Amino acid sequence: MDLGLSGKTAIVCASSHGLGRACATALADAGCAIVLNGRHTDALEEAAAALRDRGAAVTGVVTGDVADDGVQRALIDAAGRAPDILINNNAGPPLRDFRQLDADALHAGLDANMVTPIRLVQKVIDGMIERRFGRILCITSGSVKSPAAGLDLSSGARVGLTGFLAGVARQAAHANVTINFLLPGLFATRRLEGVHAFAAKAQGVDVAEAERRARARVPAARFGDPAEFGDACAFLCSAQAGFITGQSLLIDGGAYPGLL
Q1: CATH of range 9-187+225-251; options 3.20.20.30, 1.20.120.740, 3.40.50.720, 2.130.10.10
Q2: pTM of the prediction?
Q3: Ordered DSSP codes for the chain
Q4: What are the pLDDT digits (tens) for 105-136?
């Protein structure tokens, strides 16, 4: 399927590894020029080289914390104009018992996973509305629908982001600008390694047993492949997805047992 994205420009935050990189790869394969972002120059340059080897156009490689206003401006400048696509992505706070979260930790988690994505949307959405095309996708977490111990701060911040931008989505829909949310379950990324380590300690088992128990809870009997997450991202950014907005798509292999 031609997704109608040839010639579009996409900013993909936190895209040197994991799900962000998978989204950047899928969008590049669909014809987008990509602006990459991450905290480590070596990893970013490797990701950029891999995309260029696939024939992709990488128009910017911006190192730094996306919460920094200067980094946000550099991302937009690298796009050459307000981007056609924004993939909001940021690492979640470390897994921690909620009793251990002091005020600084609470504010840091909210800033990274709620305030920062909102600020980026504020910077790009008017240009999208003016051009009558825009796709904003926020990578949140399956814990938005199914809270998990240790992820309380991550879940809370991302629920707040979802509620805030769900209203914004309705304000921009008239201009063919959509805002949606991808909720990953257990995907084979570096983040999952931390989840297993936290669970192992909490359950009094080794990491291998914690991983086995986690896999057993997934009806698909496996962890997700980041590439399939990237493909879902690319579709929600496509021309064909213009009637989908304000929605949260859970991709978890059937682990969440609810209907809604």
Answers
A1: 3.40.50.720
A2: 0.94
A3: ---S-TT-EEEESS-SSHHHHHHHHHHHHTT-EEEEEES-HHHHHHHHHHHHHTT-EEEEEEES-TTSHHHHHHHHHHHTSS-SEEEE--PPPPP--GGG--HHHHHHHHIIIIIHHHHHHHHHHHHHHHHT-EEEEEE--GGGTS--TT-HHHHHHHHHHHHHHHHHHHHHGGGTEEEEEEEE-SBSSHHHHHHHHHHHHHHTS-HHHHHHHHHHT-TTSSPBPHHHHHHHHHHHTSGGGTT--S-EEEESTT------
A4: 999 999 999 999 999 999 999 999 999 999 99
